[in-house]
Amino acid sequence: MTRTRHATPTFQLRLAAEKDVVIGPGKADLLEAIERNGSIASSSRELGMSYKKAWQLIETMNRHFTAPLIDTQTGGNQRGGASLTPLGREVLARYRALERRLSPDANPDARALLDCLGRRPAID
Description:
The chain has 124 residues and is α+β, with helices and mostly antiparallel strands. 48% of the residues lie in helices and 12% in strands. The strands form two sheets. The protein has a two-stranded antiparallel ribbon with strand order 1-2. A hairpin with a 7-residue loop joins strand 3 and strand 4. Helix 1 packs across helix 2 and helix 2 (40-47) crosses helix 3 (51-64). The longest helix has 17 residues, at 86-102.
């Protein structure tokens, strides 16, 4: 289970299947970074995670979706790289669309739920 700390209450969308988080905020950030950088290695560095961890996240996603989300080319004498497959772009777009719909700024139920929270002293 992922444990996070937030200074203010926030919603985080995760799709879980079996014992895995199939896609969540970190995996979506990784997909965006790969699309932006064209590289798993540079994307993992940008996000402050190991290359091995990035591959573990990719393998988890690929295990659950109907086709791979990332297309890779090996390096050798020519530079390798990575990009999102059409399914990868679709999954990322749908995930981000759901996030926007669940945002307290866009969803009165989300705002109301946050408003139900009591003020609590910060925990150190």
